[in-house]
Amino acid sequence: MKNSTNDYLRFAKLELAKVIFPTKPQVKQAFIAVLVVVTFVVLFLALVDFVMSSLLSAILG
Question: Which helix (H) or strand (E) holds 13?
Answer without folding.
Answer: helix 2-18
